[in-house]
Amino acid sequence: MEGRPTQNESDAAGSNYMHGLAIDAVIFGFHDNQLKVLLMQYKKSDIFALPGGFIHKEENLDDAAHRVVSERTGLKDIYLEQFYVFGDATRSDPSPMRTIMLANGIAPGNHHWLLQRFISVGYYALVDFTKVTPMPDRIFDGCNWYALADIPPLMQDHAQIIKKALASLRANLDNKLVAFNLMPEEFTMNDLQILYETILDKKLLRPAFQRKILSLGILERIAKKWTGGAHKAPYLYRFK
Amino acid sequence: MEGRPTQNESDAAGSNYMHGLAIDAVIFGFHDNQLKVLLMQYKKSDIFALPGGFIHKEENLDDAAHRVVSERTGLKDIYLEQFYVFGDATRSDPSPMRTIMLANGIAPGNHHWLLQRFISVGYYALVDFTKVTPMPDRIFDGCNWYALADIPPLMQDHAQIIKKALASLRANLDNKLVAFNLMPEEFTMNDLQILYETILDKKLLRPAFQRKILSLGILERIAKKWTGGAHKAPYLYRFK
DNA sequence: TTATTATTGTAACAGTTTATTACAATAATA
DNA sequence: TATTATTGTAATAAACTGTTACAATAATAA
Question: How far is residue A166's CA from residue A3's CA, in Å, rounded to a whole number?
Answer without folding.
Answer: 23
